[in-house]
Amino acid sequence: MLKLFRFLKPYWWQIIILLIATAVQVYTTLRLPALMADIINNGIVPGNTDYIWMTGLHMILVALISAVASFVSSYFSARVGANFSRDIRTAVFTKIISFNMSDLKDFTTASLLTRTTNDVNQVQSVTMMMLSMMLRAPMFCIIAIIMAIQTAPDMSWIILVGVAAILGTAIMIMSIVMPKFKIFQTLVDRITLLTRENLTGLRVIRAFNNEKVEKDKFVKTNDKMTRLLIFIDRILELQNPLVGIIFNGTTLLCSWVGISLLTKDFAYLGNMTAFAQYVTFVMISFLMLSILFVMLPRANVSAHRINDVLTRTPKINWKSKTNGVPDKSPSVEFKNVDFRYPEAAENVLEKVSFKAMAGETTAFIGSTGSGKSTLINLVPRFYETTGGEILINGLSIKEYAKDDLMKKIGLVPQRGMLFAGTIKSNIKFGAPSASDEQVHKAAEIAQAKNFIEKLPKKYNSLIAQGGTNVSGGQKQRLSIARAICKNPDIFIFDDAFSALDMKTDRKLREALKEITNEAVVLIVAQRVSTIKEADRIVVLNDGKVVGEGKHLELLKTCKVYQEIVKSQLSDKEYENELKLAGKVAHA
């Protein structure tokens, strides 16, 4: 928790105002019992009406000052607390979006959502309480004890009895509740995970008629969290009756001791009344501190979870600025690249080497699990290679600053991801300063113009979060248009044509040729028809390059490629392809 207090530094002057206002409030509030005792001893007992009026007006003025100080204190406490949580939430979000894929795998998405929302809220609530209670309560306590002893020294031992009882109650409750808070936060993560998983996978759940299974999983976790929450609430609620008994017992003790002293000196009435109020202030102060100390463990768990994110050292270190001068001509080169996922037993890629030049289309094909998408993800450095070297424009990707490398790459992922906004804002996502003409041109090349023009608001039509209001093919075409609008040196299509029909696929590839004459094009595909015209096809099998060349060359030389082609064509079509390959080889 203390590590997060660095976020309070920009608000030091507001905290100083809060401290001053709190000190004024404490002083004025504790002056009231003394003034009340003064009225009783010097006004009511001797019957001095003028003194009662004069002191009464003084009390009203003090009460007004106390009210203003309380308002100022509460205002700055809320203001600082809100800004504090905003800054933490921004820092957590900024850190999360700086993570690479390997970093994100260490946290679940649900856990990161909870840390950004629920955990920050917990820390904010306790910080606001600390800004008010941690300052106010000790002041109240110390000054009230001093004034109580000065007012009625014969009754001061009562304070010790009441404080000991309050502290004992708080310690007992904390020892029971503290271990449960960590379990509770874990269950909150689990609830978030199940909710997110079921919402994103709703179609699959319904298609397999598994609503009951998923509901049972959710209900089981929800019931467990509910039982734990009820247990925690029951223990915390014990505090109210126990504190009530302590308060009433202390008041009774004050009355009993005070009345016995009044029989000796009736003028002690004002002192007894003031002492009873001071004891109440002391008890309330310790009660506020005990409530804070009960809430603190839960906030401390949340703070640890937030710090886990903020202090995480990224597994990939980027240069602050690019070291070296990249070639002007775009290229991507793999030199004996190995890759293994963290804690995996075997390499996913092994000794992969190839070079893709500007104006060329290099395609990657292979069976499921052959490492195609993994290879593509190494180019923008989503993962770090475990061996070998990757060069972009002749310069190692480890020498690039992140912004410089990402500017060169236009990525269309396997699953087209759209963001809440408009069609135009999604296409301009990688090029915010792009003109309308550039947006329209990108959509036209991506074969998205036809369906966009049919929409009532055209390019200003709204896109729902995740692109749920457009079809899979439309989502892919808009994702492709986004990459085109960026005008990068390197286009990466990770199975980005899978949702397109053959006709649209062909038109799109033909249109792409017009704008990729000076760019590197990397394509991962499952369909041979998508890549058969590529300048170079790299065939992967179990993470190794088993063939490299053009379509007809590979039909003659690569057994793995032959099997892939044969699985996608009829026997007659396959025989025709083989004959054509034979003629080319003979020529």
Quick summary:
With 587 residues, the chain is of the alpha/beta class. It is 63% helix and 11% strand.
Describe the SSE topology.
Blueprint: H1 12-44, H2 49-98, H3 101-104, H4 109-151, H5 157-200, H6 202-207, H7 211-237, H8 239-262, H9 269-310, E1 331-339, E2 349-357, E3 361-366, H10 372-378, E4 387-392, E5 395-396, H11 402-407, E6 409-412, E7 421-422, H12 423-427, H13 436-445, H14 449-453, E8 462-463, H15 472-486, E9 490-494, H16 502-513, E10 520-524, H17 528-531, E11 536-541, E12 544-549, H18 551-557, H19 559-568, H20 571-586
Parallel strand pairs: 3-10, 3-11, 6-9, 9-10
Antiparallel strand pairs: 1-2, 1-4, 4-5, 7-8, 11-12
Helix pairs in contact: 1-2, 1-4, 1-9, 2-4, 4-5, 4-9, 5-7, 5-8, 5-9, 8-9, 13-15, 18-19, 18-20
Largest sheet: 6 strands, mixed
Question: Which segments are poorly predicted (pLDDT under 50) over 5 or more consecutive residues?
Answer: none
Strand share of the residues? Answer: 5-15%
User: What's the CATH topology name of the domain at 2-310?
Assistant: ABC transporter transmembrane region fold
The strand line-up of the biggest sheet is: 6-9-10-3-11-12
- Number of DSSP helices? 20
Name of the level-1 CATH class of the domain at 2-310: Mainly Alpha
Helix content percent band: 55-70%
> Distance N terminus to C terminus?
75 Å
Kindly report the name of the CATH homologous superfamily of the domain at 2-310: ABC transporter type 1, transmembrane domain
- Evaluate the radius of gyration: 36 Å
* Average pLDDT level: 80
Would you count the extended β strands for me? 12
Quick one: overall form? elongated
The assigned CATH architecture of the domain at 2-310 is Up-down Bundle
